[in-house]
Amino acid sequence: MKSPYTFKYTAPLTATEKQPALFLLHGMGSNEEDLPQLVKSFEETHHIFSLRGPIVSNPGYAYFTIEEIGKPHREVFDKVLHATQLFIQEAIEEYQLDPTRICVLGFSQGAIIAQSLALTMGNTITSVVALSSYIPDFVKEEYTKLPVDHLNIFISHGDYDYVIPSQWGVESKDYFTEQGANVTFKTYNDGHGVTAENHQDIIAFLKEFKS
User: Fold this and answer.
1) Neighbours of 157 (CB within 10 A)
2) How would residue 211 be classed by pLDDT, with cut points 50, 70 and 90?
3) Structural domain includes residue 49
C-alpha cells in the first residue's frame, strides 16, 4: 500500500477469488485497536482494515481537528477524506476485494468520515455503519455528491449522548432517507458509546445485507 495511513489488517481465512471488506474508522482519542472487536465474527470471511487517524489526540489519534463540536476544520477534513478515498480504492485493487461488498464502519469522528465517504464515492461504498455522529454542513451543502440509492446504511445514537447530540443522528437518518438510501436507524438508552444491544444490531445489519 502506498497510502501513508497506519492500519491494522486481517485477511479472511476462507479462500475465494474476491471477498468483502470492512473498513473501520475509530473515534477521537482512540486508535486502530478499538473497533476490530465489534466485527470479530467476520474475521473468517472478510478483509478487515482498521485505520489509525493521522492526528495525535491524546490518549490516541483523530482524523481531523475541530473548531467546535459539529464544525470540523474544513482544510484538514478535506485532506483526510481524500486520503481515505485513495486508501479504499487502492485496497480494492491490491487486495482483490469484492467491489460489490465494501462496508465502512465508524464511530463518532470515524462515522463522520464514513458518511462523507458514502456521499462522495458513490457505488464504491455499498454499506455504512455510522455510530454516534453527524454529517458536516459543508459536506451536505458544498461537496460534489454521488447517488446513494444503492446504499444500505445503519445509523445509531445514544439518547443521552452529551458529546454529539442525538438529534444530529436523526438528521443524518433523514438526510440519507431523502437521498434514497436504505436506512436502518436505532437509538439506545446510552451516552456516547456502543451498548451490547447496539453491537448485536450492528452484527445483524451486516449479516442481513451481506456487507
Assistant:
1) 28
2) confident
3) yes
